[in-house]
Amino acid sequence: MKNKKIFLAAGIAAILAVFGIGVMAGGFFFFISGAMAMKHVMGEKEEIPQKMRYAVDYTLKKMKRIFPYAACGTVIAYIWRIISVKNFSADMVHELAVLPFELLFLPMGGVVSARLDRYMNAPLWYVSAMMITLPLIVYLSLRAEDAFRHYIVWFVPVLIHGWMILHMGGSWGWGETTPVGYSALLVAFSNLTLGCGIYLAAKRLGEKKFGTAVKILLTLLEVAGIVLCFLFAASDPEAYTFETVVGFLALSLVITLSGVSYTGRVHGRVLEWLGKISLPIYCVHWWTGQMVQVYLYQFSYPVRILCILAGSAFLSLLMMAVFWFIGTIRKKKIRQ
């Protein structure tokens, strides 16, 4: 599986986030993260003695890559919040006290109330939940390889989503209280695990040869999965409607990552940049959207969405340029 497939999927997820389909974007990012973890584990040729340490180290490396963009986006959000508040009060102190927890990706650990208005960069609940659950998933994939690949990745996500539907009315909530903590942890564990299964299915599908008619059908199914996300966003969310969309989204991602459809011909540096910019966009789109809603509320919804997309892309490119420049200077100093 080539990285360009991951780039394409990540770019789609970022666009979903900007268009306000955050719950779907989070699910998409979980699927991709799970698929990348499974790809990484299967790429190991030697026996790994310290499996949990390996799993934790792998997760921390991912967090290290995410941290600069998440921290920058979060700090800017807090600065904007301070500037925009005309009357500073005691309530503002409580809001600022959440900053350290957000920077350390700890909110989903339960140490801070999961009320949406308590976070300046709320979509990073996805990163917090992933940091807590991904080590266990990677460990299970190493420790119980047979059970993980043939049972856990297929049935555990169904059981978790089903439990959330029965007890919570739906499986898209991330701030609900459950016996194991916030529901975000259940969402993360189930979708990351399903992402591992998506990679296994994509790998198997990619090994097969198909004719033109089948490739056209697969391409239509792939695109339909993405279109359903936008249709879902335009409707009233119902539990089983959401689960159906998640199912189609998973199927769509299997086809995308396998490279057997005609979208597999999409390639180039534009696609690579789309994938690379997806993470920064996800880290800044929330408060960029808040600013657009506050200062450009008089414009139509499509115009506001375009402004959010353009603003998020501009800030993301700016951050990428700054971090690239800092990295270049550090490398030169190390060589000296």
Defining key terms:
12 helices; 336 residues; 2 strands; mainly alpha; 1% strand; two-stranded antiparallel ribbon
Task: Describe the overall structure.
The protein is mainly α and 336 residues long. It has one domain (3-335). 76% of the residues lie in helices and 1% in strands. It has helices at 3-18, 22-42, 51-84, 90-96, 99-103, 125-143, 145-168, 183-206, 212-233, 239-258, 269-295, 301-335; strands at residues 177-178, 181-182. β1 (177-178) and β2 form a beta hairpin. The radius of gyration is 20 Å and the shape is globular.
Helix content: over 70%
What does the main sheet amount to? 2 strands, antiparallel
Q: List the quaternary state of the chains.
A: single chain
Rg over C-alpha atoms, rounded to the nearest angstrom: 20 Å
**What would the average pLDDT be, to the nearest integer?**
80
H/E series: HHHHHHHEEHHHHH
How is the largest sheet built, in terms of strand order?
A: 1-2
Pick out the low-confidence regions: none
- Approximate shape: globular
Number of DSSP strand runs: 2
Count structural domains: 1
Q: Indicate the proportion of strand residues.
A: under 5%
Q: What would you call the structural class? A: mainly alpha
**Helical run tally:** 12
Distance from N terminus to C terminus (CA atoms, Å) equals 38 Å
